[in-house]
Amino acid sequence: xxxxxxxxxxxxxxxxxxxxxxxxxxxxxxxxxxxxxxxxxxxxxxxxxxxxxxxxxxxxxxxxxxxxxxxxxxxxxxxxxxxxxxxxxxxxxxxxxxxxxxxxxxxxxxx
Length: 111
What we know:
Blueprint: H1 6-20, H2 22-28, E1 31-37, E2 42-47, E3 54-57, E4 65-70, H3 71-78, H4 84-89, E5 94-97, H5 99-104, H6 106-109
Helix pairs in contact: 1-2
């Protein structure tokens, strides 16, 4: 777990979380966009408007909430080393769009 990359997290962990909690997909019913900078960064989206949810690399123009941060800060946040509220308050985590959706993000991100 120590050497997890954002790609690992989007390819494995989030799909596992969605499969384990299918009701989260129907409750949220929206699209998140992630824009991560840095050597292991990239763009991914989590589409919770599709049955079972979908996680893919790239951009989705239908996203209602965009999360922007560095790859290192993202990994620190999802592994519990960086508190998401502290990251937001210190500018390490930027949110564009629906803040209500951002608050629901923990439902799909937690391990």
